[in-house]
Give the backbone structure.
Amino acid sequence: LLGACANPLTAALGAANIGLYAAVYTPLKVRTPLNTAVGAVVGALPPLMGWTAATGSLCGFEPLALGATLFLWQMPHFYALAWLYRADYAAGGYKMLPLFDPSGARTAHHCLGYACLLALVPPLTTALGVTSSMFAVESLAFNGVLVVLAERFRRSKSQGSARRLFLASLLHLPVMLSLMVFHGSRLKCAEQHSDVGAGGAGGDDVAGTVVARIRDSGRELCVHERMVHGAAGIAAAPGSCPVVIGEAAKAPALLDTVVTGPAQALAQRPSLPMGPSVRLADRVAR
């Protein structure tokens, strides 16, 4: 079905995942704690199948980011779950890590380590051009919460701290994936393509129009932009927003806007007194 409705690559990934689940992961459940890592690979492949179904290729950093996110997320998620229900896993004969770790030290260490690795994904996607810089900025919130909860579990190793980590992970994944898509460079390219194809009117791409409006609103609420220009009442300069600054590093044509934006804004209001923040922006621009 996948081969007929999608493409052979997606069908091959699906067949490989079924084989990995049935022939490797399932037998390992009753043999070794490594089953969790193998199971994380099984869980990371479906997003890649979605990517290949849409693009027909695994080339690029986007599928790597998706796979890495799903793999790393599953580790603190399932280790916390295994600690909570270690007695049930033991009764069922499943060889989960907490059964070989009575103190919980190794389990908690793994949770914290993988949570920290997951926190590195947004900065890497920004550096590789997969997302805008705002994804990395916003990740400080949701990844920070996960790391803090993992650290609390490491310190206390209690049922309560493990449960809070597990519950937080349930919310963490949809938030992270949604923001990865929202700040994705491909979504922006599709949005721009729609604008060009419709003569700048935005066409019928309702989703692209909604995303564009939300992004514009976000720029208006940019804290850095308000600090530099809000007090003096000067029109906002795009170069003050971290989104534009991050994109300028990947698109040299934007550098003129980033560098000259503050100076042009100041030139529009020469009669206004210049506060310290505005004088600083003026010196940087010059």
